[in-house]
Amino acid sequence: MVRTKPSTTRGAPKSTKKRTDQVKSQWKAKKSAQSASVLTDVTEFVPVLGSSASATFSASIPSTENILGTKTRSEFKKESYERFVSGGVDTKSSAATETLVKTQRGVVDFAEVDSMVASLCCPQCKNKCLSLCTDSRPTSGLAVFAQVNCSSCEEPVYEQYLATKFKSKTKVFDMNRQAVYSSLACGLGATTFRNFCENMDLAGLHHKTFHTHASQLFTQLEGFRKHVFSETVAYVREVHARYCGTTLGVDDTLNIIVSYDGTWLTRGHSSHIGVGCAVDLLTGLCVDAHVMCTYCQVCESTGQKLFQEKPEEYAAWLVDHLDKCEVNYKGSSGMMEVEAARVIWRRSVNTNKLRYTTLLSDGDSKTFTELNDIKPYGEDIHIDKEECVNHVSKRLGTALRNMVTDCRKRGVTLGGRGRGQLTGNAIRKLQIYYNRAIRSNKDVCSMKKAIMASLYHCFSTDENPQHELCPAGESSWCFFQEALAKHQVPGPHKHLIHTPLNEEKLAAHLLPIYERLSEEHLLSRCVSGKTQNANECLHSLIWSRCAKDHFASRSRVEFAVLTAIREFNFGPAAAADSAQFFGFQTGHHMKRLGAARMHQRVRNSLKAVRDKQSKRRDKVRAAKSKRLEELVQLEGGPAYAAGMF
Known about the structure:
Residues 106-478 form the Mutator-like transposase domain. The chain is an alpha/beta fold.
């Protein structure tokens, strides 16, 4: 007998169809939930609109679901890219591909071109005696001078540079300047670019020529800055007004929540350059940024030499140099983040018609205190502060690790081998429990109860169970409360407590830290559960264009900041729009590769937030940490530590 599978479509019983439809609907709901969790925190951001000022836009705020609907930040980026960059052209369709300009560039092997030219007839003598002669002249850079000669006529048939001039009226070749632009956009300097040309057997550019082209590009940064932020701010204002169901006038000022954070060129607290960035929490787009710099290479070299050798000419030189000097701040590196915030907040109304009335901060600088002291929006408008949940939870891990280090110096061991010790893996888990306790509750009392419950749960033993603070019910994460709700005998703590802690040894050290990090004034700023993940992502984009281990001028950093913000706001495919602003030609490949990179980035984001992938990463990380700790113990303790031996 041949068995056949019952059909679940046509001719199938109604019950089978119903079950199939239920499975399909559950699968679609699961996939949509995964897609919406790409940036879950974005869907929780509600703009603060309206104030007592007369020129401020005021409207009733609908619920979060009405504001964003089913849109994620990826969809916002896709919509903004289609509007501002590609003009609504679908780069995946064949019809759209035909409308794009075909590129006229490519890497050519002139030996093959020479054989092709040899097969052609001379237009004068009609003989097949042509040959190609190419010459990369020192002053032409990547541009190649080609000459087609006829051995019979003994005169050149064709001679010309195989490159167009930049803006047609200059002596600069377009490909040389665009090569410098591409190098800077990819984070390459003059030396790295020459190394690339060396390995590709290309002529390359002299380092002075490279820096000359870069300086010409940097003169357009102010216009590029207005180009980037004007489109971004216009889109942010439109989104806020659209989802609040109100029309926003040109002169109306909008109050929004921003996440502000600073980043520095070099690690430590002695960097000459710092950057402050403000990101709108509703759309996830960067609305403003400012670069602070305390060093000018021209002043330190030419200026100092002129001051020592010709002091009478130094004053005139200094007056002429002030407009070009890259120093715009005098102070410590730690104060750069605060000073950049002053600049951004003070110009927000005049430049963007925005007020940043709520600040999401990481709490590692006095930006919030300084802003309320200067009162950039007047005496009547107070700036509120919210804490990044991730940074708050990191404080627990930092405090516990510092405590273990201090105790070790006094001869008290809190870590080490054995059950109930405060190991590095245990600290990592306690930090995760603390983070979950904040995120899973929406009021301060519940947060504090959950935080202390996570600690006492780890202290519990069969002889002294301490689960009074753990949530009750059959769905509780606590095995003890779950068993009681089901009228069962709880299992042994030895097997069911995943992070056991020795209360007798650790309680006196842990309780003061937990009480300090569960204070009401701190937890009240974490109620919304927001993070600064968008700022951290932007920082990584900035320094991928400007390496932290190399010197860079303020202009170079500003170029990296603006191009990174352009890509951060409108996606990787916005590179074509940036190149067009600087006067370079863009073709089919630039748009195609940009769209492909954007598509791959979205795919990677969706993959990273899947539950299975997230749980697998946690298991791999925990197993690696445990394995390293075991190796250290087998080797007799730490073998390397600052000042330990």
